[in-house]
Specification:
elongated, 11 strands, 7-stranded mixed beta sheet, 123 residues, 0% helix
């Protein structure tokens, strides 16, 4: 019974910035990884950025967003953020949060997706 709630999407002009947030709640024993994926119109869902647990964390970005997007995590709040700068029209997509971990109620692994938040980059 873990769920994710996303926020922060909207309309922004090319070159602008947005910050997405994703908060995990429920019977969480631990979160091993959180990340962001996106799905543009007519395209398949693709990985944008992920952060894995560990000392200092492990980060991974899609080549298309390196240098522009930054993923971060507040472990105490079970929240992950995606700071998106220098946005381009091709960044337009529905952005989905993903989390993987262990459920405290069942001790089973979980993987859960957020509801999606729309980011539109247009003049």
């Amino acid at each position: 019974q873990v769920q994710l709630v996303e926020s922060g999407g909207g309309l922004v002009q090319p070159g602008g910035s947005l910050r997405l947030s994703c908060a995990a709640s429920g019977t969480i024993l631990r979160i091993d990884a959180m990340g962001w994926y996106r799905q543009a119109p007519g395209k398949e869902r693709e990985l944008v950025a992920v952060i894995s647990s560990g000392s200092g964390g492990t980060f991974n970005y899609a080549d298309s967003v390196k240098g522009r997007f930054t993923i971060s995590r507040d472990n105490a709040k079970n929240t992950v953020y995606l700071q998106m700068n220098s946005l381009k029209p091709e960044d337009t997509a529905v952005y989905y949060c993903n989390a993987r971990g262990v459920d405290a109620a069942t001790y089973r692994s979980f993987e859960v997706w957020g509801q999606g938040t729309l980011v539109t980059v247009s003049s």
